[in-house]
Every structure is written in structure tokens, then in C-alpha cells.
# Entry
Amino acid sequence: MNEVVNKLIKLNKTIATMESCTGGSLVNEITNIPDASKIIKFSAVTYSNEFKIKMGVNSNTIDKYTVYSIEVAKEMSKAISNFTNSDYGVGITGQLKKIDLNNLTDNDNLVFVSIYDKNKDFYYTMSLEVLDLPRSENKKYVVNKIVDLLKNIIN
# Structure
């Protein structure tokens, strides 16, 4: 994460996150780096569909694809980028080995990530299968994969 934050600072670019299943783990890692306030001003943890919608995710997208989908992750990343006027927005949704009775899906082990590049109007996406680990370890696993992706994207 150090490399990501320092690269953003050097390029004078900003980032914001809208996280669900990771519960703010990504923004926590960002803010653990000195001078992170130069590149991040706001992030949101939107555990409920209600607050994803309030932050800009279209309810029809949730209804059509489920809240646990790459389509919702993409809308989360763009919505948070637009809301904060950030160069990059990160959207994370999925399940960490826990069945959600309010949002039933075929898998309880998939996480969907989207990084929206506002300047290119482009989405970088990935789907991850989490492991049979404690929730806290799966959050770290997801964050590490996002850091790897960010290192390749930011230029």
C-alpha cells in the first residue's frame, strides 16, 4: 500500500472507496500510510443495499444482477469516484463465506472488485474466490489483491 499511496501523491491523484464485505479494510490500509490525507478525503462502508442505493448504485442493477455482482461493484466504484470527485474509485461487494438470507446467491465465497478510472472512464475489474479462512484473514486477502491491481493501474 505504501507504493500505491506514494504513487498517487507523486501524480497528484486521488482515490475513494465504497466497501461492503471488506468493511473499510481497504481504506484502513490506505490511511495507515503517512500523508494519505493528500490522496483520500472520503470513503464509505455500505453494508446495506439501502445505503448502496443512497450513494448512487441503481436499485435496478441490484434487482437484476444481485448485490453480489461485478455490475454492482462497477456502479459502486463510479458512484464513489463521482461523489468525491476522485481520480479513482474502488467498489467492493461480495460474501466472505457467509450466507446472506436477504440476498441469496449460488455462492457465499465470491468477492467482486471494480476500480474506476475517472480520467479514462474505464473500469478495471476482478472477481475473487475467498478461502476457507476466518473473516479477518479473507479481508486481508482481498485487500492484498486490490493493492496488486492498483499498483498496475496507477500511472
Remarks:
- The helical segments are 2-11, 25-31, 49-54, 59-65, 70-84, 135-153.
- The two ends are 15 Å apart (CA to CA).
- The chain has a mean pLDDT of 92.
